[in-house]
Amino acid sequence: MPFSPEKRKGTLSGIIFVAIFAAAAIFVSNFAFVQSLGISPLVIGIVMGIFYANTLHNQTPEAWQGGITFSAKKILRFAIVFYGFRLTFQEIIDVGMEGFLVSLIMLVSTFILGTWAGNKLFGMEKDTSMLTASGASVCGAAAVLATEPVLKSEEYKAAIAVSMVVLFGTISMFLYPVLYTAIIEPATGFLHMTAKEFGIYIGGTIHEVAQVVAVPASIPGSPKEMADAAVIVKMTRVIMIAPMLIILGIYLSYTAKKEGKESAGAKLVIPWFAVYFIGMAGFNSLHLIPENIVSIINEIDTFLLTMAMTALGMGTRFAKFKGLGLAPIYTALSMFVWLVIGGFIITKLVCGSL
Question: Is 138 in contact with 238 (CB distance < 8 Å)?
């Protein structure tokens, strides 16, 4: 037990150690240049954690490992629950059925495509394929964090998935403003979208929440309607992580039983933190807590998520990446192409402009 009398001091030291890294990551994320790139503190945290794991790891006491593991597992689940304070059901209703359908279709199709392509087409093992797919289909690094405990996978697999989110999410940030010029400005034609439709397209296809916010902000004179639709659709995708994880838990239980792996965990595991996440979003929808308090809760939650991501990075050694080759890049690229092209077609179909 990490907090047993003989381990308590080392565990607390490890948690404080991770917290210091997380604070540094948040400090760096506030630089104007970093904000302009839409890079969240979660991503900075895992980069710092990976740097530590491959350079200074042997210089810290082994007793601290319990605190690092606690941050990557327990603090993570607590932070995912309180992520629900970023959402209200009213926001989801406001964007309408169009935004909901685009979110649902893109999440399901991208997750299935990424899992299949990674595992069957490019030869990655299933856990890494699913983690990479969850990052692209839901909400980037936070989705990888939420999926990792359901799969009970190793830390380095989550790091691979997050690195793909960073790579292709960053490409999206430069690509979508160019697409805006081609899609919005023509008054008619196949490529034309209204501002709201393009916002739905952004929110339904870009990886990270921060990247979704950054794209409209980087387009001079972009309508507020576009930015609002983009953020709300993105947050609709975020809340869908809860039912996705529950369904994934049921699927993993079913396949374990089918393959005769009774001793390997065929018991149904419900990710209760995902259920509590929905409950927290529902509570937030009642608006019982003042907005300034909710803002403080979200800042604390960002810090806890950054701690969890940093701790995951601290468990990642480059030696574990050997043998993967370009499979993660090919997998993430296949999903990126589907998100950009397939997402455009799906948005046009759902919004009735095709």
Answer: yes
- Over range 160-177, report the average pLDDT: 84
Q: What is the distance between the alpha carbons of residues 326 and 306, in angstroms, rounded to a whole number?
A: 27
Instruction: Count other C-beta atoms under 10 Å from residue 259's C-beta.
Output: 10
Are 102 and 233 in contact, with CB atoms under 8 Å apart? yes
Domain boundaries, the chain: 8-350
Q: pLDDT by residue (tens digit) across 138-164?
A: 878 778 878 888 888 887 888 888 888
- Write down the pTM of the prediction: 0.73
CA dihedral 127, 130, 133, 135 (to 10 degrees): -70
Q: Which residue has the tokens 């739905």?
A: 200
The tokens describing 166, both together, are 């960073």
Contact assessment for residue 334 and residue 114, using Cβ atoms and an 8 Å cutoff: yes
pLDDT band at 264 (very low <50, low <70, confident <90, very high): very low
Closest CA to 212 of 247, 165, 246: 165
Closest by alpha carbon to 169, among 214, 218, 131, 199? 214
237-253 as b/e: b if 16+ CB within 10 A: bbbbbbebbbebbeebb
Looking at the chain, the number of H-run helices and the number of E-run strands are 17, 0
Say yes or no to pLDDT of 266 above 70: no
Cα–Cα distance between 118 and 191 in angstroms, integer? 31
SS3 of the chain: helix, strand, coil, percent, to 5: 80, 0, 20
